[in-house]
Design goal:
The complex is a heterodimer of chains A (about 270) and B (about 270). Chain A contains twelve helices and no strands. With about 270 residues, chain A is mostly helical. Chain B has two domains: about 150 residues, Rossmann fold (3-Layer(aba) Sandwich); about 80 residues, no CATH class. Classes of the chains: A mainly alpha (about 270), B alpha/beta (about 270). Chain B: Keywords: ATP-binding, Nucleotide-binding, Transport.
Chain lengths: ~270, ~270
């Protein structure tokens, strides 16, 4: 008998199997929702897809009475803006400090213990400090994302650089490269795809910090909205919003992956 | 075209002496091969030649001038692995040396200068048989092609000496034979000084004009690390035909005292 560890599904079966859990959850939800709504048509806990659709349609396609905005899109835009700023800044910070720490021994001696200590501080515990010091505006939310994401990215990049074969750095020196030339011609181009990978893995944490910041002090954003409507048990809005956040995270991940493959074809080949 | 002088060089790591009393010269235009079992200090000596580590005592001179304290353009290197940059194409790898030298700040050339660098690179790449894969990345090349690229890349920097660190050790025999004849051709054409480290005696005796070996002449059974290896054998192969080289190799092997198991295992790999 073939061992189960040696049985491999073909691509079609793989695709089908991948869809099974999604289908199962959907079906389970519909059944449970039907049972509850059958007993109490006003039940708010497990709304039907129809009521979710109309609730989101209300937010997405009719302007808000008070502000005239289409709230769903306005929320999405402000959340994505904060994410883009936070993750973009983290990326740049990580490149600069990661290369310094990974390549320059004196910089590593100076900063390694500090970065290690910093990455142990739970960023959410710093949120009150950020609100007090930077106010309740955009800046404190962006800084929270940076504090949550950048230390990890820095350490990841520095580690990757330390793991670069020493032969490459010696070779570059025998070709006459200065430190700056080594950075711009060897280290930076080799680390960009790694940094993009690191950024992909940071999408989850970045959303976490964003939603936390929006939940506590904000007037718009996807996180703000779900915590706002929570007061009314508005599951018909919360559930689609959560799905939308997951979809956005998925698209960001996909976008970064495609970007990395396009820009750095060599990186896929050498892994 | 450069002469290397090794003047009473010692290398110690704390109480461990790896190399001692190394004192010899490598003449200009020589193809010098350092052989020896693993652990005899071959790699350590290469690291000293490359200035990857400080010398404990003594000095190494190239054309009478003490070598810089860090790797520099006067000493080109081809390693066994990781000698070419994975993020650059074949052409990009070959052009890099010129770009680094001419664009002191950014390391990027543009316009006419780039064109000239490209032409020089293309010419030598054709010479080493990579003219048809200029836009490939190293990961798309075979091991032999990667090493040929590494040689072309090192030569384009016009080093005073070319160092080969087990450069052909990972290649299969036919590829190795091909790259050997290429290496000899380039060496003869350019009259350059080559220093090769290898554990493959056949390779050493078929390529070199001189084969040297490091070994321990002093041993203290109570303190095996107290004494280091030094130059123990030195054979001149200049002007020898293939047949004479075979005889030199045979007599070298006859004079080799009971090889250790480690040696035999290493020889068996080739």
């Amino acid at each position: 008998m073939t061992r189960i560890i040696n049985k491999k599904p073909n691509p079609r079966i793989t695709r089908f199997l991948g869809l099974v859990p999604f289908g199962a959850v959907l079906i389970l939800y519909v059944i449970c929702s039907d049972i509850r709504l059958h007993e109490n048509p006003n039940d708010k806990l497990l709304p039907s897809f129809g009521s979710m659709w109309s609730a989101i349609g209300q937010l997405a396609f009719t302007p808000d009475v008070r502000t005239g905005n289409y709230l769903f899109w306005a929320d999405t835009l402000s959340s994505l803006k904060r994410l883009a700023w936070g993750m973009g800044a983290s990326f740049v910070i990580a490149i600069v400090f990661g290369i310094a720490l990974g390549l320059i021994p004196y910089a590593a001696s100076l900063a390694n213990p500090f970065v290690a200590a910093l990455s142990l501080v739970p960023p959410l515990a710093l949120l009150p400090i950020l609100f007090i010091a930077l106010g309740l505006d955009e800046l404190s939310k962006i800084v929270l994302i940076i504090l949550g994401v950048a230390p990890y990215l820095i350490r990841e990049l520095a580690l990757r650089i330390e793991q670069m074969p020493y032969e490459l750095l010696v070779k570059a020196q025998t070709m006459g490269a200065s430190t700056f030339q080594i950075i711009v011609r060897i280290v930076l181009p080799q680390m960009l795809p790694r940094a993009l990978d690191g950024l992909r893995f940071s999408i989850g944490p970045a959303w976490l910090f964003l939603i936390a910041a929006e939940a506590i002090a904000s007037t718009d954003g996807l996180g703000y909205r779900i915590f706002l409507v929570r007061r009314y048990l508005a599951m018909d809005i919360i559930i689609p919003y959560v799905a939308w956040i997951a979809a956005l995270a998925f698209l960001m991940d996909l976008g970064l992956r495609v970007l990395s493959q396009r820009l750095f074809p060599w990186a896929r080949a050498s892994i | 075209m450069s002469q290397i002088s090794i003047k009473n060089v010692w290398k110690e790591y704390g109480d461990v002496t790896v190399l001692e009393r190394l004192d010899f010269e490598i003449q200009s235009g020589e193809f010098c091969v350092l052989v020896g079992p693993s652990g005899c200090g071959k790699t350590t000596f290469l690291r000293l030649l490359l200035s990857m580590e400080p010398i404990t005592r003594g000095e190494i001179l190239i054309d009478g001038v003490r070598i810089a304290s860090e790797p520099a353009r006067d000493r080109g290197i081809v390693f066994q692995r990781y000698s070419v940059f994975p993020h650059l194409t074949v052409l990009g790898n070959a052009m890099l040396g010129v770009e680094l030298a001419e664009a002191k700040f950014s390391g990027h050339l543009f316009g006419g200068k780039r064109g000239r660098a490209r032409n020089a690179a293309t010419e030598i790449l054709g010479r080493v048989g990579l003219g048809h894969v200029l836009n490939h990345y190293p990961a798309q090349l075979s091991g032999g092609m990667q090493q040929r690229l590494a040689i072309a890349q090192a030569l384009l920097c016009q080093p005073k000496i070319l160092l080969l660190d087990e450069a052909f050790g990972a290649l299969d025999p036919p590829t190795k034979a091909q790259i050997h004849s290429l290496m000899l051709e380039l060496w003869k054409d350019r009259g350059m000084t080559v220093f090769m480290v290898t554990h493959d005696l056949d390779e050493g005796f078929s390529l070199g004009t001189r084969v040297i070996e490091f070994g321990k002449v002093r041993r203290d059974p109570q303190a095996p690390d107290a004494f280091g290896a030094t130059l123990v054998r030195d054979v001149d192969l200049r002007g020898q035909t293939d047949k004479e080289r075979h005889q030199s190799l045979a007599s070298w092997e006859r004079n080799t005292k009971s090889p250790s198991v480690v040696d035999m295992l290493q020889r068996g790999r080739n």
